[in-house]
Amino acid sequence: MLAIEHGQGNKSSGNTVKGPTIGGPFTLVDTENRIVTEQNFHGKWVLLYFGYTSSPDVGPEQVQIMAKAVKLLESKYNSEILPVFVTIDPQRDNPSQLRAYLNEFDSRIIGLTGPVSAIRQMAQEYRIYFKKVEEEGDDYLVDSSHNMYLMNPRIEVARCFGVEYNAEELSEAILKAMISTPT
Questions:
Q1: What is the three-class DSSP state of 90?
Q2: How far is CA 155 from CA 11, 37, 126, in A?
Q3: Which terminus of the chain is more exposed, N or C, with fewer CB under 10 A?
Q4: CATH classification of 29-180 is 3.40.30.10, yes or no?
Q5: Is the Cβ–Cβ distance between 122 and 28 less than 8 Å?
Q6: Which residue stretches belong to region Disordered (predicted)?
Q7: Is 124 exposed, middle or buried (0-12, 13-18, 19+ CB in 10 A)?
Q8: What is the pLDDT of residue 136?
């Protein structure tokens, strides 16, 4: 089954099977405690990643790749893209924690958090898997999918990227998707 990007459902009639819609409205808060909705990103290309600040390995690597890809797109291709990080661990990732974490990678990355219910709803809409995995004591990890989504200026998913990309490959794939996607 093929995933259908948000707003890109099949317009024809017949016995066509549609894939799941990816994306949807959300209301979260940024690292300055300002309310942010999907409408704040309207008119911009957005690279969206779901992770958490205490991730031991894959998460920081993916944020680093995101930051490098955005810098490459800007310097090499003069293309602007807004990097956005949504926490899947809002119990630990408050706005100040997110700000400190993301500033280690690139101060342009917008960090979003919110109530557990709002994070869970957004993750569900974006088909993000995550599950708390208890460790010894009170500590825990969060098992999750590590997808990045390229959102077009209409806030529709233009492309999904997995962990197999390095920064150069990601920036080239994003540029290709930006060129081939009508805005």
A1: coil
A2: 19, 11, 12
A3: N
A4: yes
A5: yes
A6: 1-22
A7: exposed
A8: 75
Q: Which amino acid is at 174?
A: I
Please spell the DSSP secondary structure of 102-154, one letter per residue. Answer: HHTT-TTPEEEE--HHHHHHHHHHTT--EEEEE-STT-EEEEE---EEEE-TT
User: Angle formed by the axes of helices 167-180 and 58-77, to 10°?
Assistant: 60
Paired tokens of 84: 């956005």
Token representation of residue 148: 């990045």
Q: In this structure, are residues 143 and 38 in contact, taking their beta carbons and an 8 Å threshold?
A: no
With a cut of 50, which residues of the chain have pLDDT below it?
Answer: 1-18
| DSSP per residue, 29-64 | EETTS-EEEGGGGTTS-EEEEEE-TT--SHHHHHHH
Q: Supply the pLDDT for residue 65.
A: 94
